[in-house]
Structure formats: C-alpha cells, structure tokens
Amino acid sequence: MSFALRTRPRRLRSSAAIRELVSETLLHPKHFVLPLFVEEGISSPKAIPEMPGVERYPPEKLTNKIENSLALGVRAFLLFGVPLAKDELGSQAYSKSGVIQKTLTLLKSSFGKDVLLIADTCLCEYTSHGHCGYVQDGKVLNDRSLELLAKTAVSQAEAGADFVAPSAMMDGQVKAIREALDQAGFFDTGILAYSAKFASSLYGPFRAAADSRPQFGDRKGYQMDYRNVREALKEVELDVKEGADIVMVKPALPYLDVITKVRESFNLPVAAYQVSGEYSMIKAASKAEMIDEKAVVLETLYSIKRAGADIIITYYAEDAARWLSE
Ligand code: PBG
Ligand code: ZN
Q1: Domain that holds residue 85
Q2: 71 has pLDDT over 90
Q3: With bands split at pLDDT 50, 70 and 90, how would you rate the model's confidence at 4?
Q4: Atom 11 of ligand 1 has which residue's CA nearest to it?
Q5: Which residue has a Cα nearest atom 1 of ligand 1?
Q6: Which positions are annotated as binding Mg(2+) (predicted)?
Q7: Is residue 8 part of a domain?
Q8: Catalytic residue among 151, 197, 283, 305
C-alpha cells in the first residue's frame, strides 16, 4: 500500500547523518560555566553528600580541577566561598584575605586569561544569619545591603575576578556594583546579573554545599515568586538599565518559558543556571538506576539551550563536555 503523502517528516529522521544535518540546537562546552565551591581551612577536597560528585576544594587544590576542565573545553567558572568564620555583617565576603579573594588571586596567577573567573557576589555564605543582605530586627534591609555588596564586588575585582555575579536579589544591586567598580577603576570587570532568580526549593542541596541556609525565615522577601513571569521581565529590564552585561534566569528547567521570554525581549547574552536541586534529582534517580544519567543530562541541557539560553551554568559541565565529545 502506498499513500499519496507528500510530506513525510520521518524522511528527516531516517538516519543519524540526516538527523545531525537538520539538528537545530547546538550544545558546546564553550558555553558552559562550572560552579566551584572553595572552603577555607581544609587540606583536601571534601565530598558534599547532598550533591554526589561535587566537592568543596581548598584554594590550593583547585588548579588540578581547573586543568581538567580546560582539557575538556570548559573555561568559565563560578566561584562560591565557604569561610571559616561568619558574622552579622558577612565581613569575610569583602575581606582582602577572604577565601574567595585568596582563590581568585591564586587562580589568576596560574591561569591568567585562559580562564574566565566569575565571583558570586552575595553575603549568605558569610553571614551568621544566612541571609543575602544586611539584617536588622529580623528584616533584610535593602539599601544597607547594597553598600556591603558593592564592597564585596570591588574586593573580588581587586583580587582578579573577570566578572562578578550579584545574586542577592536586592533592588538596585547592579547599579550600586557598577558604580562602585567604575569608581575603583574596574571598568572592564563585567556583571553577570542573577536577574530573574526565583525563590526555589531546588536550592536545598546548594545551601548544604555552601553552608548558607537562612537561620530564620526564608528568602521570599527578596527572591521572586515562581508564579510570575511578567515580573521576571521587569527584573531583567531593571538590570539591563543598571548596567548588567549578561542576565540570568535561575533555576533553569522549570523556567524554560522565562528563558524564552527573556531571550526574545532583550539583546544581552542570557545565562540559565541548572541549579543544585536539578543536579541532585538527576543524580539520585540515575544512582537508583531509574533513568540514564547521560541521556537525561543531555536532554535537559539541549532543552535549556533550545529555550533560548546562550550560556548554561551547570554542575554537569565537565561530564556534559565529555559526553558531547564521545
Ligand atoms: C544565594 C545563592 C543560591 C544559589 C547560588 N547563590 C541560592 C539560595 O541559597 O538562595 C543556588 C545555586 C544552586 O542551587 O545550585 N545567593
Ligand atoms: Zn545569597
């Protein structure tokens, strides 16, 4: 039997060669960013039980890890610090001898321009209360937080950060940081803004990894409500006006619609952050042999790219780079 079907979409699926030829979405390690945790006061890498396969590194032990990434084609890194001591004002976030500052200096002297070092600019890993800003009477005060965040960004730039990545979701943080960087002469230090950062339960494993759980309340007073997409566009618009170089949507997979809208509405590079909970869910299901890890990871990364992300921040950056080259 033959039918007079003119259009047979299956023709374009009939061999790997034709499928590759017509594939619409490209994924390449050069668009990945690998998040790294650096801990002060440890002498060897320390496993993170909530994120199997991810470790906290002592600053001096990061060079091997980075060499491994570079060999796979991943050269951008997002650095998070875990300090020995925390206080009300998060002073280790902007101390010249802070764990991130030491790490940035060390990595810049070893790798120079071969790596792109992005410093996460926030206070939650450094404050005793675990909030992302300045706390008074149980409230996170916006404008006092801006001063501390700006100070943090400048000290990260001084230590060698190529980019800073403000993630506190304080109003005006990009403007405050841009002005402070410029005033200190760091015109070329870029800003990767966590613009549409939602108050997500998928950050749980990260808070264990970075020891940054809020000690009271939650982050809903500053991070976004996940029911809102128009508001996400407003947040991105503000960050663009305030001087962001790259904008971010976070988390990634449950927010593909937001990624698409941001991509369509603005002409800046858009980054998407596949967060700790997204990582750990895939890890746990594959460890239980319920899903095929490689296949699922690549499917999620292609989806994030297809939705419109130019850059993907993922704990799977090295694995994905390896799998893509196979
Ligand atoms: C906080 C921050 C968070 C992440 C990065 N920086 C989340 C939070 O604790 O609110 C999450 C990253 C992840 O889950 O992988 N400034
Ligand atoms: Zn924070």
Answers
A1: 26-325
A2: yes
A3: confident
A4: 203
A5: 167
A6: 235
A7: no
A8: 197
